[in-house]
C-alpha cells in the first residue's frame, strides 16, 4: 500500500492534469510512480521535465535505460527496475543486456565503463575522483556524456527514493533484483 494517495488523472486539475495527460499519451496509461509524485506539482514537473530533457540527450534511450536499471538494482528499487527493464526492451535492449546492466556489466567494454562509473557515483554518494572521470574519458566518453550520466544517476536516485519511501505499487512486470558478482 502506498504511503500517499495516487492522484487519478481524471480528477487532477491545472498543471498536474496537463502533465498526467502528457504522461498518459507517452505510456498509454499513467504509471503509479507519476500518480504518487503528482501529490507535489513541483516534483511532478521536475521529474517529467527531466525525462523529457534526457530524451534528447547524447546517451540515447538504450544507454539511459541501462543506467536506470543499474541504479535501480543497486538501490533495491523494485519499481524502477521493473519499469526500466520494460522501457529498455522497448528501446531495443535484449533481456541479457538488461540483466547484465543490473550489476553494471555489458559485453561492450565502453558501456561497461560508463555503467561502472554510474554505480560508483551511487556507491560513493558522488564522491568520485579525477582518476574515475579520466578512466571513463579514456573509454571514449565525452565530458558532455559524463555530465549527462551524472544527471541521469541523480534523476534515478530521485525516482528510486520516491518509489521506495512511498511504497509505490509496481505496475510493470516484476524483475528479480541481482547481487553484484
Automatic annotation (TrEMBL):
It holds the Pfam family CMD. InterPro entries: AhpD-like, AhpD_core, CMD-like, Uncharacterised_peroxidase-rel. Residues 51-123 form the Carboxymuconolactone decarboxylase-like domain. One of its GO terms (molecular function) is peroxiredoxin activity. PANTHER family: CMD DOMAIN-CONTAINING PROTEIN, SI:CH211-175M2.5. This is Alkyl hydroperoxide reductase AhpD. It comes from Actinoplanes cyaneus. The lineage of its organism: Bacteria, Bacillati, Actinomycetota, Actinomycetes, Micromonosporales.
Amino acid at each position: 500500500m502506498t504511503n500517499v494517495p495516487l492522484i487519478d488523472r481524471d480528477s487532477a486539475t491545472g498543471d498536474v492534469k496537463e502533465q498526467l495527460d502528457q504522461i498518459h499519451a507517452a505510456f498509454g496509461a499513467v504509471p503509479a510512480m507519476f500518480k504518487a509524485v503528482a501529490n507535489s506539482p513541483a516534483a511532478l514537473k521536475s521529474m517529467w521535465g527531466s525525462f523529457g530533457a534526457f530524451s534528447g540527450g547524447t546517451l540515447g534511450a538504450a544507454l539511459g535505460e541501462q543506467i536506470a536499471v543499474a541504479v535501480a538494482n543497486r538501490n533495491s528499487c523494485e519499481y524502477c527496475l521493473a519499469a526500466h527493464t520494460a522501457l529498455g526492451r522497448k528501446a531495443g535492449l535484449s533481456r541479457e543486456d538488461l540483466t547484465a546492466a543490473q550489476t553494471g556489466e555489458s559485453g561492450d567494454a565502453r558501456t561497461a565503463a560508463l555503467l561502472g562509473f554510474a554505480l560508483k557515483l551511487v556507491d560513493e554518494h558522488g564522491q568520485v575522483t579525477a582518476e574515475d572521470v579520466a578512466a571513463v574519458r579514456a573509454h571514449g566518453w565525452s565530458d558532455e556524456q559524463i555530465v549527462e550520466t551524472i544527471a541521469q544517476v541523480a534523476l534515478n536516485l530521485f525516482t528510486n527514493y520516491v518509489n521506495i519511501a512511498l511504497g509505490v505499487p509496481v505496475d510493470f512486470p516484476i524483475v528479480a533484483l541481482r547481487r553484484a558478482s
